[in-house]
Amino acid sequence: MLKNPKSVRHENHTTPAGNVAAPVRAHHVLIAGAGPVGLVSALTLATAGIAVTVFERNTTAAEDLRASTFHPPTMDLLARFGITDELLPQGLVARYTQQRDRKDGLIAEFDMALLAGETQHPFRLQCEQWKLSRLLMARLAKFPHVTLMFGADVGSVRQDADSVSVDVRIGAGSQTQTQSQTFSGDYLIGADGSWSAVRQALGIEFEGFTYPERFLVVSTAFQFADHFPKLSYVNYVSDPQEWCVLLRVPTLWRVLFPTRADETDDAVLSDASIQARLQNLLPQSEPYQTVHRTLYKVHQRVAKEFRRGRVILAGDAAHINNPLGGMGMNGGVQDAFNLCDKLVDILNNGASDTLLDRYQRQRRSVAIEYINANTARNKKNIEERDPEARRKTQDELRAIAANPVAAKDYLRKTSMIDALERAQAIT
Ligand SMILES: Cc1cc2nc3c(=O)[nH]c(=O)nc-3n(C[C@H](O)[C@H](O)[C@H](O)COP(=O)(O)OP(=O)(O)OC[C@H]3O[C@@H](n4cnc5c(N)ncnc54)[C@H](O)[C@@H]3O)c2cc1C
Q1: Does ligand 1 come within 6 angstroms of the Cβ of 136?
Q2: Is residue 264 part of a domain?
Q3: Can you spell out the DSSP letters for 102-130?
Q4: What's the pLDDT tens digit per position in 362-415?
Q5: Is 17 inside a domain boundary?
Q6: Is the CB of 66 within 6 Å of ligand 1?
Q7: CATH assignment at residue 166
Q8: Which of 38, 174, 302, 398 could form a disulfide with 191 if both were Cys (CB 3.0 to 4.6 A apart)?
């Protein structure tokens, strides 16, 4: 079954945490994509002694500014490998989240300490996603049975009753000539992001829609907290004309704005337009100094199938959503744990691979009923133009925040604790 034995070594080993791991067996899982989801999958499998090869199209790991919020259940899961303890000092502990109005200021503040007893981490961690990827890669480097290949572009996929094979273009993105090589394994995880080549190779539909407007994220060292009273690290700011999200990461503030569908990319990213948006949010006599600008399309899409035979999709390859609520990366990491615990059971303990159908039932349901539904609702509320509907939503938020029982329920939803429990309940 293992057709590329050179890429894998079979031996007993100790885990990076020093625990003796299960002996490495002749099992091999292929993973397309070295984003957070592919890397968490690799670590979960490798720690259980399963050989892993990760193919990453880019020549280096992504270090751009993408997700920046870790929700409590994600930290609880990552704690299994001691990753959370390493991540915590690299981020900011956000005990409070706020719902604000651009004109009226603070509407409702939620204290995540109410989640004590529900999670080991009753707060959000504001920390850039590349820091997680960097920690995961350092861990993976210690396993002799893990191969992480950069410049390796996964193309076609074939499978039969015993194995799955992928054709990989090696040398992608570099000056050297590319060559194609075929790799085979027991299973293939498609964690290759929203444009997933694996999903496309299988012809799996990515059902849903793309919003007409794109989202702009600008980061700046400007200290918004000195100007907006009582600003927390996570602030959703509604407005009928131009809503925004103000998020703090250790060295910067990130401001997320919607753009108009009729603006060109160049116009949105021009200095004039960036300054106009920031000055409209908070007028300053000096121009704002910005560090990053990112403009991206936003979708609500879920793959019609998460599993076909020996190929399983996870993370953005399986579902994508708008970033309002910070559920994309978190949902993807939660997919990775769910899936890889099942693969360990199948490969190491002889469990039936119908467990993978359960993965699909659990994680696809959560992607549709929970992640996409909540993020779509968050967008609708933050951009609401009808004054009566805005007032109603804001009154509801105030009432929830004032009642600790209702606030705890609200926080269980927004912090994805409910989503994880919902998935577990699906048989
Ligand atoms: C520009 C941008 C900004 C974002 N901002 C936010 C945000 O503000 N808040 C938020 O919550 N979420 C945000 N997200 C979403 C969040 O980053 C994703 O949900 C998260 O990265 C999902 O992780 P993943 O591992 O599934 O996919 P990815 O992180 O996309 O990783 C997939 C990896 O697969 C690789 N790959 C692709 N095709 C192939 C192939 N054929 N062969 C081999 N490798 C391949 C890619 O190079 C990539 O490294 C943003 C995403 C983008 C793209």
Answers
A1: no
A2: no
A3: TTTEEEEEEEGGGGBTTBS--SEEE--HH
A4: 999 999 999 999 999 999 999 999 999 999 999 999 999 999 999 999 999 999
A5: yes
A6: yes
A7: 3.50.50.60
A8: 38
